[in-house]
Design a protein that fits this description.
This protein has a two-stranded antiparallel ribbon. By secondary structure, the protein is mainly alpha-helical. Helix 2 packs antiparallel against helix 3 (about 60-70) and helix 2 (about 35-45) packs antiparallel against helix 5 (about 105-115). The protein is built from six helices and two strands, in the order ααβααβαα. The termini are far apart. One of its GO terms (biological process) is synaptic signaling. This is Dystrotelin.
């Protein structure tokens, strides 16, 4: 969309549509009930290997998401844990496994889960900035040791 040739109403409308789509995905995956604090144990477990680039198989993603939703199951409707786990896993692989390899990058999972969580925009921004800093420091270590 060329911002120079569009009016503010058209831009506002596009932003609103994008926000509605994001909210729909968030609710479909039950991520609106998940906070960054809920995500922290899962993200720490995933990134604990110290490897700069980590690929996750679908079964691993499914297991981590199941653990996440089990931890917040008191906030979910009955029998929502399997559905939320399946929907979120499908969404992540549809977004990030375009070649159908069966693996996706950890950084993609982290960024998507942070973006979809139900926390405030400023908290999400801090979370995304944090994973960016970690990826920069990991790549600096590779460069220095290589």
């Amino acid at each position: 969309m060329d911002l120079d040739s569009t009016g503010p109403n058209e831009v506002r409308s596009a932003v609103y549509r994008a926000a509605l789509k994001l909210r729909t995905l968030q609710k479909l995956c039950q991520m609106h009930l998940v906070s960054l604090q809920d995500l922290r144990p899962v993200l720490n477990t995933l990134s604990s290997s110290g490897e700069p680039v980590i690929s996750l198989a679908q079964a691993d993603v499914q297991q981590y998401l199941e653990d996440l939703f089990q931890n917040i199951s008191h906030e979910l409707p009955d029998d929502a844990v399997p559905e939320a786990t399946d929907q979120t896993t499908r969404l992540l692989f549809k977004l990030f496994d375009r070649e159908h390899t069966g693996v996706i990058l950890l950084r993609s999972v982290e960024a998507a889960l942070i973006a979809l969580c139900g926390d405030t925009l400023s908290a999400k921004q801090r979370g995304l900035f944090h994973i960016h800093l970690i990826s920069i420091s990991s790549s600096d270590l590779i460069y220095l040791s290589g």
